[in-house]
Amino acid sequence: MKHRVYGRKLGRNASQRRALWRGLITDLFRHDRIQTTEAKARSMRDDAEHLISIAKRSMAEGGNPVHARRLAARVLTDPNVTKRLFDEIAPRFVDRAGGYTRLVKVGQRLGDGAEMAVLELVEKPAKAETKTAPARK
Fold first, then answer.
1. What pLDDT, in 10s, does the model give residues 75-118?
2. Which strands form 33-37's sheet, in the order they lie side by side?
3. CA–CA separation, 125 and 90 (whole Å)
4. What does the mean pLDDT of the chain come to?
């Protein structure tokens, strides 16, 4: 029986699974979206949303930003991505209560038929205004 057993094994042992999740979460925060198998996306989605919640909480009054950054650095493999999480990503979700990621199924992979999905952050980054060329007459 599988009572109260949480998570997917993904055909890996615990250390390989943890390394996979850390890499996927780091790439998600680096690129704002990743394409992977549906099972991997579903299994790491909760951890990614939890990191965004930690970053948001540290921005609130009375939060401890040093402790929050250290918690995030335990998971993220790149210090620049940790900085981006706290400086760029978390402020985008200040007014949002949850549901920071979106999972979109994109079909099957050609090689082995695995169900693929795109995991992306819901709020798009604000793009800098660029000058547009005047319309031709």
1. 999 999 999 999 999 999 999 999 999 999 999 999 999 999 99
2. 33-37, 115-121, 101-108
3. 11
4. 90
Contact (Cβ atoms closer than 8 angstroms) between residue 65 and residue 72:
no
Q: Are 108 and 115 in contact (CB under 8 A)?
A: yes
Contact by Cβ (8 Å): 91, 128: no
Structure tokens at 27: 């790439």
- Give me the domains of the chain, ranges plus CATH numbers: 14-121 (3.90.1030.10)
Which residue type, as a one-letter code, is found at position 110?
Answer: L
Only one residue has tokens 């650095």, namely 73
**Which pTM was predicted?**
0.85
* Distance of alpha carbon 91 from alpha carbon 13, whole angstroms: 35
